[in-house]
Design goal:
Strand content: 35-45%
Distance between the termini: 45 Å
Oligomer: single chain
Structural class: mainly beta
């Protein structure tokens, strides 16, 4: 990071908190301009089907969260001169990041405001034919209280017509997240000849070439080793004024990046705050170990009836045991030791108010601050969970020592709580297991092997084809099945690898995927450990590359 800083034009190591840079613009004029464009059909053919906004991205398009390199570069590249409606124009794109602490904006880094945390975030830009703007981030130096960082682009000085070019597929720019070691220190900005020729050539086949390059799985223009890359084109942005690319949050093993890719109808950072807040983790209180927690309800109403119901759920949204009902032990007092309702596999405990009170009732969970609510109607008061907050995964990994409390106080409005809970905690429906390949399979002897893989889950056993005479087999087979609460009895997923021989099959190793504790979706290698007659051998092993994913109901 320090070596790159020598190339940066604008750097400040001030650690002071800064206010967002506000870029004022006449919004009424902007709206009128866009309406006129639509009416005059100057917007490229095909864009009218989604108006100002592109279709919302699906989870498959966004992909799962990905770990970020310890030292990263967020790079925005775009042509300084672009052709729009027959004229050369100079587009203006401002790369920014906005940090949040406990749900509140903390600091902004971007064009015109380079102050940030000392030795943590810096801003750089170059002004050549192919413009480059870059944020340099040392994630290990981000302050502990920062829990979410948003990355995006503002378009403050462009009309919809000038910014988007004269064809629907014109690439306004490219956003990339890269590891700093993958950037040449002397050529950290992109070269002009690295930009795709179809975007510089005004020929009639420009849109066709763009479509071919933009939406295939591995476009030549993307860096193969980038953490995440996105074209800023009409299909991605629509005709909006800002763009929220993604957010970085603290995952299990460090900072992770989750794409958002949301077009925002706002021309300043301040107006974009609403969209950012909608993607923030919920407010919560850290509790620690669940067995030591006590829930207390108090009221001054002498005629009140304090009563609650407890609903317990596992990681995959299946209810555990029967509903537990608790009533006041004495007038105005109800205490519940959580250890009395804990069950195996429990990852969430929902506490629902079912009592009556004509005055306020006070709720306190552990050492968290007490909260008052009106006890005249039923509501879901709080959720205790060890699944964390802010994770975009449908079924986050449990953290047994890190229980938290999420206050809700949602009125039941005559509904059964079990109808409302799935809105917050989805229930699993289908399990997909995919075995891609084996890597460097080893045997006690150096002879070649003909391996095949077996998936075993409960009573189900699925077998792949046999790959002859190879230690790096490519199986590429999948198995999908219904997933329900029986997962707790069926056990974990086992992957067995065998070699087919004249005298039968010979074990090459096995790997176990623990459904209760491992990350889902999981995609990557699992180490094979020796089994059978070679259980103690050091010459048996290798890896099996698998994907395990679970969809919601």
């Amino acid at each position: 990071l320090r070596s790159l800083r020598g190339l940066v034009k604008k750097i400040s190591i001030s650690g002071s908190r800064v206010d967002p840079l506000l870029i004022e613009q006449d919004k009424v004029k902007w709206q009128e301009e866009r309406v006129n464009l639509l009416m005059s059909r100057q917007i490229p053919q095909g864009s009218e089907e989604f108006g100002f906004f592109p279709p919302r991205k699906t989870p498959d398009e966004l992909g799962p969260p990905v770990p970020v390199p310890p030292m990263s570069a967020i790079r925005l590249s775009f042509l300084k001169w672009q052709k729009a409606q027959g004229e050369n124009i100079t587009p203006e794109l401002n790369l920014f990041c906005q940090t949040f602490c406990n749900g509140k904006p903390h600091a902004y880094v971007g064009e015109g405001s380079t102050k940030a945390y000392e030795e943590a975030i810096a801003y750089a830009e170059s002004d050549y034919a192919l413009r480059t703007k870059m944020l340099l981030i040392d994630w290990e130096e981000i302050p502990e209280d920062v829990d979410c960082i948003f990355l995006g682009v503002l378009f403050p000085k462009n009309s919809a017509a000038l910014l988007r070019g004269d064809t629907w597929f014109s690439a306004t720019g490219l956003l990339e997240m890269l590891a700093i070691e993958d950037i040449d220190e002397e050529k950290w900005k992109r070269e002009y000849d690295q930009w795709p020729q179809w975007d510089k050539d005004p020929a009639n086949n420009r849109a066709e070439l763009a479509d071919k390059d933009l939406f295939k799985k591995e476009p030549e223009f993307f860096m193969k080793n980038s953490v995440y890359s996105t074209y800023l084109c009409d299909r991605e942005l629509g005709f909006t004024q800002s763009y929220l690319w993604g957010k970085c949050f603290k995952g299990e093993d460090g900072w992770e990046f989750q794409a958002i890719r949301e077009a925002i109808d706002a021309c300043s950072l301040q107006e974009s705050m609403v969209a950012m807040r909608s993607h923030l983790p919920e407010s919560y209180y850290v509790l620690g170990e669940i067995e030591k927690i006590q829930v207390k309800l108090r009221t001054q109403d002498p005629l009140a009836k304090l009563a609650i119901k407890c609903f317990r759920y596992d990681r995959f949204g299946f209810k555990l045991g029967d509903t537990v009902e608790v009533e006041q032990q004495k007038r105005g007092h109800l205490d519940l030791d959580i250890s009395d309702v804990v069950l195996d596999f429990m990852t969430s405990l929902w506490i629902v108010w079912t009592g009556t009170s004509s005055t306020f009732v006070t709720l306190q969970v552990g050492d968290s601050p007490a909260t008052e609510f009106m006890g005249s109607e039923g509501c879901i008061m709080t959720r205790l969970t060890n699944l964390g907050v802010g994770s975009p995964s449908l079924f986050p990994t449990p953290k047994p020592e890190k229980w938290i409390s999420l206050p809700l106080f949602r009125a039941l409005d005559g509904l059964d709580p079990e109808e409302i809970i799935p809105e917050y905690q989805p229930q699993a429906a289908n399990l997909r297991i995919h075995v891609e390949q084996g890597r460097e399979l080893t045997t006690p002897k150096s002879s070649s092997v003909s391996p095949f893989a077996v998936i075993q889950y409960g009573d189900s056993v699925q077998k792949s084809s046999v790959q002859k005479k190879t230690k790096n087999p490519a199986w590429g087979f999948s198995h999908t099945c219904t997933f329900d609460e029986s997962w707790r009895e069926q056990g974990d997923i086992e992957f067995h690898v065998y070699s087919k021989g004249v005298t039968g099959k010979h074990p090459l190793g096995m790997a176990v995927f623990e459904l209760g504790s491992m990350r889902i979706p999981f995609a990557g290698p699992l180490r094979l450990r020796p089994t059978g007659p070679h259980a103690t051998s050091k010459n048996i092993g290798g890896h099996i590359v698998v994907l395990v994913d679970i969809s919601k109901a």
